[in-house]
Design goal:
about 375 residues, alpha/beta, Aspartate Aminotransferase, domain 2, Aspartate Aminotransferase, domain 1, seven-stranded mixed sheet, four-stranded antiparallel sheet, 15 strands, binds pyridoxal-5'-phosphate
C-alpha cells in the first residue's frame, strides 16, 4: 500500500482541475496579449479567472495579480514595498516563517534594512503585545504567516491587522498553507498584501497569486511586458491560472466537509496512539479552529526521526521529518527549535499531513505501522 501523508508539501492535481486546464495546452494556446481570436480567448480565460478569484476571496478583480508561486508572491510583496520606500527601514516578521519570507527579509537586512523578530509562544502564536511594542513610525512592513506549514498554527490575523493599521504600516500575510484549509475573506481580514500558491490545494505547481489591496504601491519584481496591469511582466500561464482558479473554487465549496473529515481523522489518529501508550507530543495548537486541518506534527520520545521516516517510507508511507539537512548534519527545523520542543523529543519529529484524498483505511494502515515501528525501536 502507498499512503501519501505529505499534503502540506504539495497535493495532487484534482480531476476537475486537470479537466479545465487541458484545452489551454493544445486547442486554446493563444497568447493573451495577442489581438487575434486565439489571443482573445486566452485573455478572456485569464480575466474570468481573476473575476472568479475576486468573488471567492471577497476582493476586487484589480487586486488579484498572478505569479509563478508562493515564493514569488512573498518576494514581490516584501521587496516591492521595500523598493518603494525612501524613509522607513524596519521589517518585522517571526522566526518561524517559511524560508520564502525569512530569506527575503534576511536578504533585505543584508542590504541595510533593520530586521526585527516578533516573539511567538510555544504553540507558534504571535505575541501581540510584543508586536505592539515593535511597530513604530519606522516600520516599513510586517510579514506574518496565516498558517504555519510545519506545526499548523493559524494566527489571529484580525488582531495583527488592527495593530498594523494603528501603526500605519503595511501588512503582508503568507496564506500559502491557509487557502482552502481555513476561511479567507480579504475584506474582513483587512491586510495589504497576501500570498497564495496553487499546489497546496489541488491546483498545479508553479502558479500563485498576490493580492494587492487597492492603493498599495509596490515596485515590480519582474520588468518586461505590460501584463498584470504592468506590474508583473511575463506571458500569463493561462492553463495554470484557470487550474488554480478551479482548485480554489472546488476547495472552498468543500471546505466545511473537508475540515470536519480531516479533523475527525486527526483525532482518531491521536486516540489510537494514546490507546497504544505511545509517548509523543503534538506540536502546535490542539486540533480545532486554531490548527490547520490535517496537520499532525508529532514528536516521539527517544527515537531517531530519520530512522522512523525511513522505516515508514519502506512501508510506502510518505511523510516529512521536522529536520533540515545542511551539508554537515541533520538539525531540527528552525520552527521546532523556536517553539522549544523538548530535547528528548525534538529529533524524532514527523509531520503527517492528511489530505482531501486520504481514506480511513489508509490512515489505519499508517497508524498500525507507526505503532509497530515505535514498539520495535524502543
Ligand atoms: C507557508 C508557506 N509559504 C510559502 C511557501 C512557498 O510556496 P511555493 O512552493 O509555491 O513557492 C510554502 C511552500 O511550502 C509554504 O508552506
Amino acid at each position: 500500500m502507498k499512503v501519501y501523508l505529505d499534503n502540506a508539501s504539495t497535493t495532487s492535481v484534482s480531476k476537475e482541475v486537470l479537466e479545465v486546464m487541458m484545452p489551454f495546452f493544445k486547442e486554446e494556446f493563444g497568447n493573451p496579449s495577442s489581438l487575434h481570436k486565439a489571443g482573445i480567448t486566452s485573455k478572456k480565460a485569464v480575466n474570468n479567472s481573476r473575476s472568479k478569484i475576486a468573488e471567492l476571496l471577497n476582493c476586487k478583480r484589480s487586486e488579484v495579480f498572478f505569479t509563478s508561486c508562493g515564493t514569488e508572491s512573498t518576494n514581490w510583496a516584501i521587496k516591492g514595498i521595500a523598493a518603494n520606500s525612501r524613509t522607513k527601514s524596519d521589517i518585522i516578521t517571526t522566526r518561524i516563517e517559511h524560508h520564502a519570507t525569512l530569506n527575503t527579509c534576511q536578504y533585505l537586512e543584508s542590504r541595510g534594512y533593520t530586521l526585527l523578530y516578533v516573539d511567538v509562544d510555544n504553540q507558534g502564536f504571535v505575541d501581540l503585545d510584543h508586536l505592539r511594542s515593535l511597530v513604530s513610525g519606522n516600520t516599513l512592513i510586517v510579514s506574518i504567516f496565516m498558517a504555519n506549514n510545519e506545526i499548523g498554527t493559524i494566527q489571529n490575523i484580525e488582531e495583527i491587522s488592527e495593530i498594523c493599521d494603528e501603526a500605519n504600516t503595511f501588512l503582508h500575510i503568507d496564506a500559502v498553507q491557509a487557502a482552502c484549509h481555513t476561511s479567507l475573506d480579504l475584506t474582513k481580514m483587512n491586510v495589504d498584501l497576501l500570498s497564495i500558491s496553487g499546489h497546496k490545494f489541488h491546483g498545479p505547481k508553479g502558479i500563485g497569486l498576490l493580492y494587492i489591496k487597492e492603493g498599495t504601491k509596490l515596485a515590480p519584481l519582474l520588468h518586461g511586458g505590460q501584463q498584470e496591469q504592468k506590474q508583473r511582466a511575463g506571458t500569463e500561464n493561462v492553463a495554470y491560472i484557470v487550474g488554480m482558479t478551479r482548485a480554489l473554487e472546488v476547495g472552498l465549496a468543500n471546505l466545511e466537509d473537508y475540515v470536519h473529515r480531516v479533523n475527525t481523522y486527526s483525532k482518531m489518529f491521536l486516540k489510537r496512539l494514546d490507546e497504544a501508550e505511545i509517548d509523543y507530543i503534538l506540536n502546535g495548537p490542539e486540533i480545532g479552529e486554531k490548527r490547520l486541518p490535517g496537520n499532525l506534527n508529532l514528536s516521539f520520545k527517544g527515537i531517531d526521526g530519520t530512522v522512523l521516516e525511513y522505516l515508514l517510507n519502506r512501508k510506502g508511507i510518505y511523510v516529512s521529518t521536522g529536520s533540515a539537512c545542511d551539508s554537515q548534519s541533520i538539525e531540527p527545523s528552525h520552527v521546532l527549535t523556536e517553539i522549544r520542543v523538548p530535547e528528548d523529543y525534538i529529533n524524532a519529529t514527523i509531520r503527517f499531513s492528511i489530505g482531501n484524498d486520504t481514506t480511513f483505511e489508509e490512515l489505519n494502515y499508517v497508524i498500525d505501522n507507526l505503532i509497530d515501528i515505535i514498539m520495535k525501536e524502543k
